[in-house]
Amino acid sequence: MSAATPLLEISNLSAKVGGKNVLQGLTLSVNAGEVHAIMGPNGSGKSTLAYVLAGRPGYEITGGSVKFQGRDLLTMESEERARAGMFLGFQYPVEIPGVNNVYLLKAAVNAKRKATGLPEVDAYEFLQLVRGKMKLMQMDESFLSRGVNEGFSGGEKKRNEILQMLVLEPTLAVLDETDSGLDIDALKVVARGVNSLRSAERGVLLITHYQRLLDHIVPDQVHVLARGRIARSGDKTLALELEKRGYDWVLEVA
Amino acid sequence: MTIVLPTNRDENWRYSNLRPLAKAKREAVAPHVPAAIELPARLPDYERWVFVDGQFAAALSAPARNSCAVLLDAGDGGEEFARMLDSAIASAGVDFALARLNAAGGTQVLRIAAPDGARASLELVFVATAPAASGTSYPRVQVHAGRSSHLRLVERHVSAGDADSAINAAFDLALAADASVDHYRLQNVSDGASCFDTLTAHVGDRGAYRLRTITLGGLTSRSTLLVKLAGRAARCELTAASIANGLQTHDMFAEIEHAGADAVTRELYRGIATDRGKLGFNGKMVVRESAHGADSEQTLKSLLTGKGAEASVRPQLEIYTDRVRAQHGATTGKLDDQMLFYLLSRGIDRRTAQTLLQWAFIEDVISRVDCAELRTDIEQLVAAQLNEVSALEGLLGKP
Q1: In what order do the strands lie in the sheet containing A59-68?
Q2: Distance CA B224, CA A253 (A)
Q3: Taking the domains of chain A in order of start, what are their residue ranges?
Q4: What is the pLDDT of residue B396?
Q5: B344 with A108: Cβ contact below 8 A
Q6: C-alpha distances in angstroms, A250 versus A39, A44, A186, A231?
Q7: B390/A contact by beta carbon, under 8 A
Q8: Which of A219, B50, B218, B386 is most buried, by CB atoms within 10 Å?
Q9: Per-residue confidence (pLDDT) for residue B260, from 0 to 100
Q10: Rounded to whole angstroms, how far apart are CA atoms B147 and B116?
Q11: Model pTM above 0.80
Q12: Is the pLDDT of residue A165 over 80?
């Protein structure tokens, strides 16, 4: 991969779900080191984009291509995508009672290490690492032995997503409405987590409904998704304009 | 005396596979000196009684010096003990055919009689070695828990070798007032063996009978459980887990009868059928007219993960009084797609993710085993039955 190759290159992507065309010729590039925000009204295809990138079953690709670090993403299984450095932060993380958080974290890290020929993590060092990240996310120690998202509040689930992201250190993080359902304090914690991961090698695709998250995670580019494609792109001021004027004017222009 | 075996036409036997029992030689396996047998590690603080093909094996056993258990000839002890049990339970019809066969064919009875206020912990290991053509083994255990006594019983059924052994066990328990019994039952016989059992329990005032049963082995397995909550505020907790792989059939019929007032039942079943495995669980709850204030909960769930897997899980209620609280739920389903995708999206491979979710499904039952050493054993065996010990390593042995 040359330095000029985008981290993520989506070209003319179309996808169907439940017989409905949701993505209709979406084109978008994210370079390493960049944070892109995707905004748009309900039903514009934001979550579909996130799921298609992560390889969720039930989404039919009807056209276009997606390259991740130069590789054809759409032919990869979900688990391969994750091991290659893609991370999806779920809008609605599922609860998995009976599988505890620390187990999931360790299994996920080891799956990735195995794929790159590295030995399993040392149990002690791993726990130290996780504890450090938990502190950043203001999460209680007891959380580790609890079932994955079991009985978590909405805010705790979102923090847990970010914690997993911090531990997995993805090359590209796709965060699907990570800000929804968070109060302002929790929002700051989540933003701190995301910002701590920003680096020249990584990219972030931030899917959000509201501008307020972007006060805390300042994006390099903002895109408006409408009717399954990018209707408008701009810098962070576009988000402020949307906040003021709503989405209608973008839709009209589109 | 001819004892007629139940058939699939009998109401409570529709999902059982009784062919192996019908085909086995009906006479008891002749006493023999067993070859070297590898037994599970002993549990701390438990005395151990080992039976090989139904016969007590003194050399392998380690009874406590003042044990409340004693070995009797089948001819003795039976009648005296019968008086302690409620005769109504045992007069039931075809459901008792196997217990009657056991009584007719067995030669030894282990009788456990805990005096009032006593505490005792016993591990009973039943080892099957003989092929069905050389006879059936008839383990028989009678338990009397005196007033305010507390018994911990671990009952294991294992195989030495891979013979198609036929086992037909009978367990009778009577709990006096305020007695409590924690009964752990682990069936892990070889894949070709067949394991049948009939269990009755009679629970007196404020008595508590907790049965945790894990069924993993056997080509076919059938448990018939009949619990009578006879006393006031008697309690029964039944938690049962079963994993049927390959061509295994695991069937359980559990009838819990509320006769005394304010009796409580908590019943939890988790079954996983993979490949062409078959599961049956029939949880029948009977609430007599006298049993006002009865409180019963049943949550029965089965998970199918193979194309040819089958499960029949059904709660059954028979209620003859108005003043009762009875909740029941039964589901049969597949692995949750959303949970699966979540794990895959974290880089976990599909097979491991599926195993993890199966583990999560059954963990409810395992976590209720409060003897740590036994739970560790069970976890290893469950992981092995899920064919994925390594995937689950980080989950095992947690407090």
Answers
A1: A20-30, A8-17, A59-68, A71-72
A2: 73
A3: 8-253
A4: 55
A5: no
A6: 11, 12, 30, 7
A7: no
A8: B218
A9: 96
A10: 4
A11: yes
A12: yes
Query: In the numeric block, which tokens belong to residue A96?
Result: 């998995």
pLDDT of residue B399: 39
Find out whether B241 and B366 touch, Cβ atoms under 8 Å. yes
Closest CA to B274 of B239, B313, B240, B247: B247
Under CATH, which architecture does the A8-253 domain have?
Answer: 3-Layer(aba) Sandwich (3.40)
Give the chain A residue whose CA is nearest to the CA of B344. A79
ipTM rounded to 2 decimals: 0.96
Cβ atoms of residues B302 and B273 within 8 Å: yes
- Identify the pLDDT of residue A123: 87
Give how far A19 is from chain B: nearest CA, Å.
Answer: 19
| Residue B71: strand pairing partners | B110
Q: What is the pLDDT of residue A45?
A: 93
pLDDT given for residue B90 in this prediction = 53
State pLDDT tens for residues B205-227.
999 999 999 999 999 999 999 99
Q: What are the residue ranges of helices labelled H in chain A?
A: 46-54, 78-83, 101-115, 123-136, 154-168, 184-197, 212-216, 236-245, 248-253
Burial of B31 (0-12, 13-18, 19+ CB in 10 A): middle
pLDDT at B230: 97
**Measured distance CA(A36)–CA(B188) in Å, rounded:** 56
**Which stretch of DSSP H or E encloses residue A21?**
strand A20-30
Answer for the pair B86, B228: CB distance below 8 angstroms, yes or no.
Answer: yes
Mark which residues 333-362 of B lie under 8 Å from A by CB. 336-339, 341-350, 352-353, 356-357, 359-362
Question: What are the CA-CA distances from residue B345 to residues A79, A100, A120 (Å)?
Answer: 5, 17, 19
Mean of pLDDT values over A6-31: 95
Residues in chain B, pLDDT under 50: 84-86, 88-89, 398-399
What's the CA gap between B218 and A246, in Å, rounded?
66
